[in-house]
Amino acid sequence: MAWARQILRVDLSKGECRQEPLNMEWAMKYLGQRGLATKYLVEEIDPKVDPLSPKNKMIMTTGPLTGTCASTAGRYSVVTKGALTGAIACSNSGGFFGNEMKNAGYDMIIFEGKANKPVYLLIENDKAELIDASEFWGKSVWDTEEGIKSKHGDPLIRVASIGVSGEKGVKFACIVNDMHRAAGRSGVGTVMGSKNLKAVAIRGTKGVNVENYSKFMEASNAGKEVLAGNAVTGEGLPAMGTQVLMNVINETGALPTRNHRDIQFEGANNISAEAMAEPRESDGKPNLVTKAACFGCTIACGRISTVDRTHYTVVDRPEYQIASGGLEYEAAWALGAATGVDDLDALTFANFICNEQGFDPISFGATVGAAMDLYEEGHITDKETGGIELKFGNAKALTDLTELTGRGEGFGAEIGLGSKLLCEKYGQPELAMQVKGQEFPAYDSRGIQGMGLTYATSNRGACHLRSYTVASEVLGIPEKTDPLVTDGKAGLVKAFQDATAVYDSAGLCLFTSFAWSLDDVAPQIDAACEGDWSTENLLEVGERVWNLERQFNLAAGFTGKDDNLPKRLLKDAAKAGPAEGLTCGLDKMLPEYYEVRGWTEGGVPSNNTLERLAL
């Protein structure tokens, strides 16, 4: 139970859709969503395939808890070989699309090949068909979603689509559902665009069953009580969203600023959660309109915002005089501190464009920060930028580039390469703050040492959502560790990585882990699913998933040498704050990490580890 036990396989080249049973033997080993879809991908593609080749596959996938009444159980993921990284990609999204897919009766949808013209997939329970999308090609996510709902006369259809950036091949294009929720990182939207797949639209009414209803209700209700009583999930996130972190991380001395030149931003308070709630001087209205929640979520960390309608970014632009998805911490950092811009309206406007045209604000903002670094050092001139003055702190340059990148035009097409390829093109690869081609999120590893090891070893490139040691090193969850030391961080990172793989595979939001341990999750999975899902068994699943992803990357051509960080973090000491004088001690942490993982000195899973995990 809990699993729908059905896959929809879509051959875009042939224009065919067919159902097939879920491999339950694999489900019992990999649980669902991230783990199970990765198993399917590993079995079905050559890891060396070009991410944009028709031979690459893209899997939309739910977890066994997706669509149930467990708190936050509305997640789905997109698993593929990433266009930005060439590594395993698994991008997770909330909203309502995942629930709709599960209620239509599918654990996953596997897309193969490439359509000979733009199409979208329409699913109504057991009925699935590919429809000509020519009328939506070239349109934004917003126009596509509204257009599909209008065309089929059903406002309850849930739509996941790409914008123009995905069509134009921006390396970090994402897939947006429910207008402003996104499977956002690693270029999964770029892969979708390469297949001429514009959107997936779903209406599902079947419902989701669980193995033991009474035990499941008892376990899920207990979990909700824990979330409500926790300071982070019951108070901080509902009241201020993830933006509650802006001032916290800045004071910690770990807020990457101006492409990691600095680790504290003097303008942090101007773009913080507190600033979003304050009335503007110009019109007396706050940036923040209201909060929002995804399907089944009892936390409600989402933000809905608007911008000053007399601001330069929206004057004479009535289509942007709306309330839409507001700034979350990672986007606010990337668009703000990473570029030195502290104009809240400019950041909000840029975030709207990222949502509308479907590209990752983290990679985008970080790449703009790298471009500004190149510009200020004289490696890029006004000739290349088309007259855009790419100085740190220039809000107009930021918003102009957001629009150009969304359309894949002008210097925006250069930004769309991502920081690694951009900096290599201009002969300065060391200025790209990335691992395996993916840009860093909003934590400097000189001030939070565990995040350096997290970034270096993340299977999908630099990522905070694969091992959020910030919880321990800054927030003291589940226990406080010193962010400035390297001792013990190898074991901490491994524990977070394995546990996170479980949350992602179950269909739960990772934010629940601020309050829940796997001891809170295990009873919910065990009651929903057949089999034995004890905490111990779940941890083994998480470790198995992590090692499977590692195997894919090794087969794709990555090695232990790719578990590294830019020289700026390893050689240039922090200039101020609690971490003043420190660099990231990756050289101390990485060998210990390989040892606790049961890997060789070169970062390859040993035969004993593979045998123990039945890989």
What do these coordinates show?
The longest helix has 22 residues, at 535-556. The model has no long low-confidence stretch (mean pLDDT 96). This protein folds into three domains: 6-203, Aldehyde ferredoxin oxidoreductase, N-terminal domain (Aldehyde Ferredoxin Oxidoreductase,  A, domain 1); 257-432, Aldehyde Ferredoxin Oxidoreductase Protein, subunit A, domain 2; 446-612, Aldehyde Ferredoxin Oxidoreductase Protein, subunit A, domain 3 (Orthogonal Bundle), CATH 1.10.599. The protein has 25 helices and 17 strands. By secondary structure, it is α+β, with helices and mostly antiparallel strands. The two termini are 25 Å apart.
Which tags fit this structure?
Aldehyde Ferredoxin Oxidoreductase Protein, subunit A, domain 2, Aldehyde Ferredoxin Oxidoreductase,  A, domain 1, alpha+beta, 615 residues, Aldehyde Ferredoxin Oxidoreductase Protein, subunit A, domain 3, six-stranded mixed beta sheet, 3 domains
Total count of strands: 17
Do you know the CATH topology of the largest domain? Aldehyde Ferredoxin Oxidoreductase,  A, domain 1
The CATH architecture of the largest domain would be 4-Layer Sandwich
For the record, the CATH class of the largest domain is: Alpha Beta
Average pLDDT taken over every residue: 96
- The domain tally reads 3
Helix content: 25-40%
Largest beta sheet: strand ordering: 2-1-6-3-4-5
Assign an overall shape.
Answer: globular
Q: How big a fraction of the residues is strand?
A: 5-15%
Give me the secondary-structure category: alpha+beta
